[in-house]
Every structure is written in C-alpha cells, then in structure tokens.
TrEMBL record:
This is VOC family protein. Keywords: Metal-binding. PROSITE patterns: GLYOXALASE_I_1, VOC. InterPro entries: Fosfomycin_Res_Enzymes (IPR051332), Glyas_Bleomycin-R_OHBP_Dase (IPR029068), Glyas_Fos-R_dOase_dom (IPR004360), Glyoxalase_1_CS (IPR018146), VOC_core (IPR037523). One of its GO terms (molecular function) is metal ion binding. CDD domains: VOC. Residues 11-135 form the VOC domain.
C-alpha cells in the first residue's frame, strides 16, 4: 500500500452529524460547548447549522434523519472533545445535568486503570455518544473497564 506523502499538514476538520430536530440539537450544542452559529440553512426540508468557535468550523448539524443513533451499526463510535482542565470537565458536567443529559458513567472517570486522563461520557438528544475529557488532572481511580479504554465501551 502506498503512503500518502502529499498529506503533510493533515488534521481532522469538522464533524458532520445527522440530527432529527435541528432546533433542539442547536440549543444543546450551544449550551454545552458554547458554539457560535457560523451559518444556518432554514429552508424547509434542508435545515442545517455550521457551529464553531473563534472562526473555526468544528461541527455541522444536518436535519435529515429519523430515529436515534445506532450504536450497533458501523460508523461513528463517539465524538470526543478535549479541554485543558478537570474544572472545565466538571463545569460541562453541571451544564449537562441541568439539561437532563444521559450519562454512561457517573462523574469523571479515568480513560484507563489508574490513569490521570479522563472525562465524562454522555449522549446528545439523538443518542449520539459524546465525551469531554482532559489529558491530565483526573484523579487516578479504578476504570469502569479495567482491561480496556473506558471510551471504547460506552
């Protein structure tokens, strides 16, 4: 297999998510992540929103699905957001609890046994699995899945 030597500045761009109710999802993502609406389509049957921070596009929402996120099918496993401190994770957790979000684990959990990176694992209004974590500052503790990364099994 040939290596892609021409992709020397490669990085992840935005993530596009299908949602069932744009207004509900837009309110959720703005409340939790503080996203700005960079652009929005309001035409019947073609509703969408581009969300970002500081001029950088991060997430796009597309109202073009029904049902809920299917964890048992190939595709997105979860979407993770990194923050700088455990206090930021706790602040996001408080916002999510106020919104009535569904959590997979109780509180901040380490990514692995005795790890210092950790976060919170929850779902958006359509059941899409999300994570907010910090690379350091989570107290070493027993992980929910000791033999594997916590984020892989929610």
């Amino acid at each position: 297999m040939a290596e892609a030597k021409t992709l020397q500045t490669l990085q992840t761009g935005h993530v596009g998510l299908n949602v069932t109710d744009l207004e509900r999802s837009l309110a959720f993502y703005q409340a939790v992540f503080g996203f700005d609406v960079m652009a929005e389509g309001k035409e019947a049957g073609r509703r969408w929103a581009f969300l970002g921070r500081e001029g950088r596009l991060l997430v796009t929402l597309w109202q073009q699905s029904t049902g809920s996120f299917a964890t048992g099918r190939p595709g997105l496993h979860h979407l993770s957001f990194q923050v700088g401190t455990v206090d930021e994770v706790r602040a996001a957790e408080a916002v999510l609890r106020g919104l009535g979000a569904e959590f997979t684990y109780d509180g901040i959990v380490p990514h692995g046994e005795d790890g210092t990176s950790g976060g919170i694992f929850f779902t958006d209004p359509d059941g899409i699995r999300l994570e907010i974590y910090t690379p350091t500052g989570a107290d070493p503790a027993d992980a929910p899945t000791p033999a594997a990364p916590t984020c892989g099994f929610f």
